[in-house]
Structure formats: C-alpha cells, structure tokens
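Hi R.,

Quick one: here's the Ferredoxin oxidoreductase sequence you asked about.
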Amino acid sequence: MNRAAVMPIAAVNDFVVKFANVNGSGSASANELFAKAILRMGVPVSPRNIFPSNIQGLPTWYEVRVSEAGWLGRRGGIDLMVAMNPQTWDADVAELSPGGYLFHDSTRPLPPGRLRDDIVPLGMPLTAICNAHYADPRQRQLFKNILYVGALAQLLGIDADVLDALVAEQYRSKATLLDANREALRMGRDWAAANLPPALGLQLRRADAVGERIFVDGNTAAALGCVYGGATVCAWYPITPSSSLAEAFEKYCLKFRVDPETKQNRFAILQAEDEIASIGMVVGAGWNGARAFTTTSGPGISLMSEFIGLAYFAEIPVTIIDVQRGGPSTGMPTRTQQSDLLAAAYASHGDTKHIVLLPQDPNECFEFAAAALDLADRLQTVVFVLSDLDIGMNQRLCAPFAWDPARRHDRGKLLSHADLEAGREFARYKDVDGDGIPYRTLPGTHPERGAYFTRGTSRDPKARYSERGPDYVYNMQRLLQKFDTARDLVPAPILRLSAPPVGAPSGATPSDAEAPAGAMPPPPSNASANTRLGAIHYGSTTPAMDEAVAILESSGLPLDTLRIRAFPFPDSVRDFVLAHERVFVIEQNRDAQLRSLLINEFDLDPARLERVLHYDGTPITARFIVGAIRERTAS
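And here's the predicted structure, written out as tokens:
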C-alpha cells in the first residue's frame, strides 16, 4: 500500500491513545499528566494502567480513552500509539488501527520493514534532544517523557495553560522541578511545531462534558467509604491489587481519626504476617464490637476460608473487600478479572452463603464499603465487597460521593446493659423476630448477664454445645432465613429497558438514566415490548456494556439489561430471565460464574442463559460485547 494514499483517522474529542513504556522509567506521572490535561479541558477520559507484576524493566502500557460522549469503558482499537519501548515495538505497531498515528523516538533510523504502510509515522529524536540538553542520565530518561507530552499537546491541541497549571500544582513546593518540567514541556511543543505536521486528524477542543464528576480510583473510594462507614480496625497483608486500599485507609484515618486534643489514634491498622492472621484479627475485632475489615485479592480469600467459615457460623460481623485479579493460584496479579464471584459467595466448607456487593465504579465502591459495614453488623455475618483491578487501581470519572450527615451506623440487634438489667431474655442463637437474625451482646456489656461461649461447633439456640440433629438443623435453617432477609437489604439491581426513558439527559449512559429495580414489576413489565433479548451483567463490565447497548440499538437490535449489584439476588432477577427468550450473561471469567450462580440459586434452565465471556486479563470492550451478541443473534 502506498503511504501517501492512507486516509489518516480524523476525530475530535473521540479517540484512544496508548503509551508503550518500560516499567520504572518514570513514564507514569507523565502519562497521567497527559490524561488530566484533557480532563481539565472538559473532555471525559478513561485511563487504564497496564503494568507487569515482575521487576523493573518490563513493558508497561497506559491507555487513555477520550470520549466527549462520556463512554468510560475500553472501546477496543488504538488511534495513536506512543511507542517508547523497543522490546514491544512489533506488537505495539500491530495494534494500531489502519490510518492511526505512530509517535516514536527517531534518534536512530528504523530498519526497513519496521513500519506499516497504512499508518502515519511521527518521529521525534527524543533521546538526542535529551542527551544534548541534560548531563545527568536519570534526567535524560525522566524528561524524555515530559518532552513527548509537550509534543503531543502541540499535535492534538491541548492548551498550554492547562498543562502549565497542572505542573504548577504538582511541583508547587519544588521550584527547581517546576521550572525544569515547564522547560521540557516547552521544548517538546517547540520541536513539534517546527518539525511535525501542524495538527493531526485527532484533535481536542474545549468542552463542558465533565460536569461535577470527580476523578478517583476505586481503592481510594472504598477506603474513604470505610472511614465514613465507621470502620476503626483494618488488618491486612499486602497483595496486588488491593494494597493501596489499606494504605489509603491509613491516610484518611490519620486525617479524620486522630483525637484533636490528646493526639491519640482512634483506629488500629495492622499489617499481619499473612492473610490468615489478618482475617483472624478482623474476626476478633468484630466479636469485640469494633467495625473491622480486611482487603485482599483472590489468593487471600483462599487462605482466609476457614476463618470466614468461623465468622459465618459463629455470626460475627466481618467485612472483606476483594479487589479481584486473574487466577487461579498466582495467576496474573496485575491483570483484571471477575474471577472470585463463586469463591466469595460460597467461601468455606460446608453449606455457607455470603452477602456479596458488586460495585460498578468508585462512587459505588465508596457507597458499598460503608453499606457493607452496616450489613455485617445488622446481619451478624461476613459481607464481601467485590471490586477488581480495573475499578480499584484505575482512576475513573464518577458521580461525587454523597453522605447524609444525619445517617447513623446500623449496629443491628445489640442488647445493652439496660436491656439485660431489665430482665430481657437472651439466647444468642435464637430467632425471636422471624427474620433469622438473633440478638447479640458485646463483651463487658453486663457483669452477670448476656455472656455466652462463642464456638465454631454446633450448638443450641442458647449457645450451648450440641450435636443433636434438631439443634443443628434449626441453626442451619435460621442462617438460610437470615440470608433470605438480606435480599431486601442489599443494593437492588438496575433494570434498563430498551426504550430509553423520556427526558433522559443528553450524553447520559443507560445506567445513569435508570433507578434501582428492587421492586421490579412482574412480567411482562420487566421486558420492553419490542425485544425478547436480555442481558445481565455486573461490576466493571458496566461502562463497556452501556456503550455496547447503545451501538446495538442504533443498528436495530434492542436489548433489555439488568445490572446485578448484590448477592443474594431478589426474585426480580429470576423474573427478568423468565421474561426473555434469550438472556446473555456478560462477565469476565472463563467459567461463567455469574451464570452458574443464577442457575444454582433459581433452578433456571441453563439454555436460557447464554455465555459472553472475556478473560484475557484486559478490561472487556464494547466492541467485544457487540461482536459476541451480533454473532449469536445472526445464527
């Protein structure tokens, strides 16, 4: 193909840029500066950091989706590749869409055949410029990244004052670094202006599409949710991708949980020797009345299972935030999956069922982390918040966090000293109200009454050791009743019918325009009149799913969707399935875990639920979902 005949991609505020770097090269802060500058111009971005789990020097990538329409999922396809890693050059070049742009270091001439005829090369001698300007080897490496940000700003139309303001914020207390970064940005701009095309087909224009949304990662959001939710104890063991959640919790506790007069900490954060010890500490803290949580990932859940079973059977409030990664075993520590759903729902041996909350973004990470602490106390059980690496470690635009100052923490059925003093009957494992939830006391509540022996073995309603069949059956059935009670307490699913709501705001995604469907009407109200196709999804698949639905409907393929936000499922989930001839279940794991859970809990016909599975470690894309559904509906 003749390169002169290539039709370069042309788009305004709607494209994907990918940076290919070397881990440890200092590129992360430069790439984040690029993304934030676009955001400051009022154009939504959705960045994703793709990094190795091994040592410094391995390949790393940073992908930025630019979408004035507000789509935040991965789209698929790359329009501009910033290729800074020779080791991954061939794969990076191959990933570019036809007509895309390849920005690269042209200090050394490329051997023949290293470029494609259907892309637009943009060479800049970054190494030569840095070698001529900086004497220090580390500065040469670091400022090479800032140089290419300056050049891209010139090519794409990023306002210079926006970048200047961001650099000033980052280095406001370090005048030397501030001046050096400003100079590097200017050098990059000037060289690009003098030597590269005056503008690319990809361009940025100021917009007003961000609104009041905030830019934050899910781990930080969940940590703040734990603070607002009243957590005072966190015991954890470092594991990717959850470690930053515990670190953020400590940061916020130091800000909000230190007594202003005595300077004493009103919190305890313990880095345990392993995951087994960490969950043991959390169980002990929960038994003592503290609001306690641990944060981990799949391998940690495996190690914690015996303690999880103890907390379930002894009915001790415990919150576990699982930031999922690829498995099994060590798997892919720095890649994302929805691989722990069944493990969380049924963790531990014997007949166990756990509450599982499924946030879609940082806003729900904040909301669900606080809600989990309430649910754990109210239901006296283990509650999982199931995030994943894509939500937890990547910054995402989301609605601002909201908190009602009048909200009080729900401690559940706690008998006080006054209750016991007044002669209130206490039987630790007796169902008094018909909801399966017994009353409990905390250690030290009363010197003579309300004490009981906490055990992991079978007992009668008064907590006395018993292996009598009727006592065991009573207890197990009561635990099921408690689980059933939870159906009306957990976050309700979100129903979206294929006909969009009248008056939905421009640019709103389908999930933005819908309300919770906890009391979804019976069939056929949970299916739109013009479709018999449905789709069920959850968590981090949501941004790509929303965009996929819009694409499918614009091409004449209407689709009702249901976003599940918690387990146990309400009956409305079963009704949604039964109201449609075919229901696609979209998830990011190999074995269709959500589909299995739906079939198991509702005894559904497996033929009604069709798998759409993506599990290569990268976030699912709208293009993948669209392609999978079109392929199945075409046959």
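The chain has a mean pLDDT of 93.

Cheers,
M.
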